[in-house]
Amino acid sequence: MTTEGTVEAFRRAEELLAQRRPLEALRVLEPVLDVDADKPSVQLLLGRAYYFSAQLRRAERAFLRVLEFDPSDHYARLVLGRTLQRLGRLHEARAQLRLAAMMHPSPAYQEALGEINAHIATRS
């Protein structure tokens, strides 16, 4: 696949994900992974597609891979936290969401952290 074709496929996968069509996005991403699997942006998009198609363990692996490349990626930590939350691993989720909220103190991140804290409190 040419560089131009890779970029086009990546953008198409982003569009499909925005349209809530994660399985189609995964199919479109396949040739991109053959060429650029080590790019954090590709792994992040892959993880989001897995997340939205409820392939949570695969999503976790993709987000962890992004964090191997860049441990300071606050968004990867946020979506990893959300993934762990859906997997029922609340304390691990809280740790990731805390880091994300400290790195990027936006209302959405604070809300996600508050939500996980409430889930943990109700289970105690």
TrEMBL record:
Is-annotated flag, keyword Zinc-finger? no
- Give any Pfam family that matches: TPR_19
Q: Which UniProt keywords apply?
A: TPR repeat
Q: Where are the TPR repeats?
A: 40-73
> What name does the UniProt record give this protein?
Tetratricopeptide repeat protein
Q: Does the keyword Transit peptide apply?
A: no
* Gene3D superfamilies documented for this protein: Tetratricopeptide repeat domain
InterPro entries for this protein: TPR-like_helical_dom_sf, TPR_rpt
Q: Which organism is it from?
A: Saccharopolyspora hirsuta
